[in-house]
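Quick note —
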Amino acid sequence: MARAAPARRAQRDDIPVARRSRPAPRRSRGGFGLFLSCVVVCGGSVAGVLFGPELLARLNTNDVEAELVSGFDQLSGFDQRPALDGRLLGHFPYDEVMDSRLIVVEPGIELHEDAANAFDAMRQAAAADGLDLRLLSGYRSHDLQESIFFDVASERNQTAEERAMVSAPPGYSEHSTGYALDIGDGEAPETHLSPDFEQTPAFRWLQDHAARYHFILSFPEGNPQGVSYEPWHWRYEGSASALRLFEPARRLVQRRP
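Predicted structure written out below.
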């Protein structure tokens, strides 16, 4: 029997659906761009010889963190740095999955091949029970996550802390691993990306059956990461590599008193 879910006030996640898929590929550079790139590379090599490894090491130190800090400075009220366990605004850091491991599951939506196969099996099982699981979002590059985080924060007049309640900073999203996905109920599209999704038959089915396909709810109510409740956001943990990626998040839940 499906578990009952408490009623909640509708509160949609404000990540536009149009921004949840892979962006259009960038244009390749022309001949002049290639020439300019060669000049830059050669110049960098000469600089490395002239100024020594100390300068180059200094330039390469914490490049990613510097970019994130620069981005956060665009939003008012941000004064945090990653915690000792690596979290930033409650979110753990995640690298991008290699393109060779991605599979197109829906137009514009990709998943890691392991998660894609598991989701396909789960969707078929749900269909056999009369349910229509819809894939709303899958893999997101760091570039796409940057746009979702900063651009939408500006549109919504949100601080970084407010934005992080519903969306991870770039470099800190489970979606970049290819293992995380957003699921909706095809019979109740009005609940997509909303806490009201927990009222749907699809969510109740997931509560009872998702673990069989190695999917768990990433951000349940009162989660220790401090992220808003997202009944639509599930992650795949059915392989050793996936378990290693999400082990810090699992340990945080286990340490909770």
